[in-house]
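G., the chain you wanted modeled:
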Amino acid sequence: MTTEDPRILELRRMRAKALEGGGADRIKKQKAKGKQTARERIELLLDPGTFNEIEPFITHSEDELNLLTETYYGDGVVTGYGQINGRTVYLYSQDFTIYGGTLSEMQSHKICRVMDLAVRNGVPFISLIDSGGARIQEGVRSMGGYAEIFRRNAQYSGVIPQIAVMLGPCAGGAAYSPALQDLVIMVEKTSFMFLTGPEVIKAVTGEVIDAEALGGSDVHTSVSGVAHFSVKSEKDALDLVRDFLSYLPSNNVENPPYIKPTDDPAFMDDELNSIVPIDPSEPYIMHDVIEKIVDQGSFLEFQANWARNAIVGLARIGGYSVGVVGQEPAIMAGVIDIDAADKMTRFVRMCDCFNIPLVTFVDSPGFLPGIAQEHGGIIRHGAKLLYAYSEATVPKVCIITRKAYGGAYVVMSSKYLGTDVTCAWPSAEIAVLGAEGAANILFKKQIEEAADPAAERAKLASEYRERFNNPFNAASTGYVDDIIEPRESRPKIIASLSALRDKYAPAPPRKHGNIPV
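Predicted structure as tokens:
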């Protein structure tokens, strides 16, 4: 009988120790909160049996105060690579059972290592975040570790997809890493983000608030706009990562994956022809328009509860990934405000980074007027959207469903911003402003001198609308490429994207532009 090599036995013992995390008691506490362990999360996310760990035996450096009396393999984070739907990804998963998942110098080293490998191999990078923030005992070394991560988040932005999944706390400067990534997913009642916590706020400002109300998932998906999705469970969050990646390429030089559609690319939904009301003041649901045009069940809407007057999300049309941008006429009449401009800008730029064509549905009466908007910098925020569409070199298709007035017409992927195909529905109104507003300005004196000013205003507005606020006037001067029946939108978009598949539009050489942030 051969005696087992003691070196192999020692390796097995150390491997087993590394798998223990912070120990059985701390794992039990983690479970009691309804949270998975760092390794269980990885197993839920990746294809079965594909995870390969990197640097499992790293331990923390010595701290000057000698407060870190216990040493744990992995130092509070599990790093490595595996596959999602057969495609390689690199990732890290913070282990809250080891010093609260706090970031140390060596934990930063491990995270930066997998980030560098992800870029070197041109594959997505995923952060599973569950951390109490910086490890105070290590002082500036922990702070420097965060800076190393943030620098990579910024430098690798637009090169590979970066996804942050919030599975616990993310406090202080740690919140900047997810904010720099392409997608932020939060879990209800479990994850929260803030720069200064409730106790600090109370001490400095006197305001009293709890962690959930300050930086919970509802706050960041409906008020601040920091997060893109809020889900009910960790499993839902990890499933959403898999779904999101199915729309994206692995890096910025690949094309998005194609998934064979189950519905007919030539299908035309006749209900679209009657979806826009005759009365231009009556709302309709743009979400219904989108769902009737994209491949069935493929629309993945981003930030659905923030800036609801704007719509952004990924979808498939004819099996190909597209980024959908538009207005929701049923919310604030689809007007563009500061938050809506920011929401659309960020999404347009993400799509352009990863070669995802843009399909824009326009129905907006303009930018939201008001002192608060002007003083809040609506010009600057609107200029971001203008910049994003002008800068984007991916195929761009625009469908004007109804109102396209003034600045809203210009910034929403208008033809001379470089949009490849611009179509209008017969209900489209393309003008500097609405008929009533135009009549008030152009015929002010005539209206004032009329025997019945209201009737005169209505007559002049009707004449103006008939002559100018229709798609045929814009088409006669080449500002739209075609006027189509609404039901023809799906095959028209598919044909346009097919023709544009090899589009080549290199930008002029430069270090980078200066977007009006």
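The two ends are 72 Å apart (CA to CA).

Shout if anything looks off.
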